[in-house]
C-alpha cells in the first residue's frame, strides 16, 4: 500500500459527465461563423460597443471576442478601438479611420495584383 487510507476508488468520469465542450461530437463546439448571433452582426452593431472593452462587448452581443475581431478586421479596424475611444475619439471618427484603412488596403491590393495584357 502507498499509505492511502482505505476507501472507495476514484472512478474516471464518463463521457456524459464531462463538460459538453470537451466532447468531440458536442454541438457546443461549432465554428465561429455558425454561432447564432455571429451571422446577424454588422459592423454598425459592433461599432456601438467600441466604448467598452472587447470582453464586455462580446458578452453584450452574445458572441466571443474572436467574432468581434474578425468583423473589425474585415472593415479596416486592426485593433479593438476602446483605448482610442478613451483618448477622445468618437465612434464616428473611428469608423472613418477604418474606412480609410480599408480603402487603402484595397488600393494596395489592386495595385499589386493587377494583370497587364
UniProtKB/TrEMBL annotation:
GO MF terms listed in the record are: DNA binding; DNA-binding transcription factor activity
The cross-references to Pfam families, in alphabetical order and at most eight, read: RWP-RK
Q: State what this protein does.
A: Putative transcription factor.
Q: Which residues form the signal peptide?
A: none
Cross-referenced InterPro entries:
RKD-like (IPR044607), RWP-RK_dom (IPR003035)
Q: What is this protein called?
A: RWP-RK domain-containing protein
For the keyword Coiled coil, the answer is yes
Q: Does the keyword DNA-binding apply?
A: yes
Boundaries of every RWP-RK domain copy = 23-107
> Which PROSITE patterns does this chain map to?
RWP_RK
Instruction: Provide this UniProt record's keywords sorted from A to Z.
Output: Coiled coil, DNA-binding, Nucleus, Transcription, Transcription regulation
Amino acid at each position: 500500500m502507498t499509505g492511502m487510507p482505505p476507501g472507495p476508488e476514484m472512478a474516471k468520469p464518463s463521457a456524459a459527465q464531462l463538460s459538453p465542450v470537451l466532447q468531440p461530437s458536442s454541438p457546443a463546439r461549432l465554428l465561429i461563423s455558425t454561432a447564432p448571433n455571429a451571422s446577424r452582426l454588422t459592423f454598425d452593431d459592433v461599432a456601438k460597443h467600441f466604448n467598452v472593452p472587447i470582453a464586455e462587448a462580446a458578452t453584450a452581443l452574445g458572441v466571443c471576442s474572436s467574432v468581434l475581431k474578425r468583423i473589425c478586421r474585415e472593415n479596416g479596424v486592426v485593433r479593438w478601438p476602446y483605448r482610442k475611444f478613451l483618448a477622445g475619439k468618437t465612434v464616428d471618427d473611428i469608423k472613418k479611420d477604418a474606412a480609410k484603412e480599408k480603402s487603402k488596403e484595397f488600393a494596395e491590393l489592386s495595385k499589386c495584383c493587377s494583370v497587364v495584357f
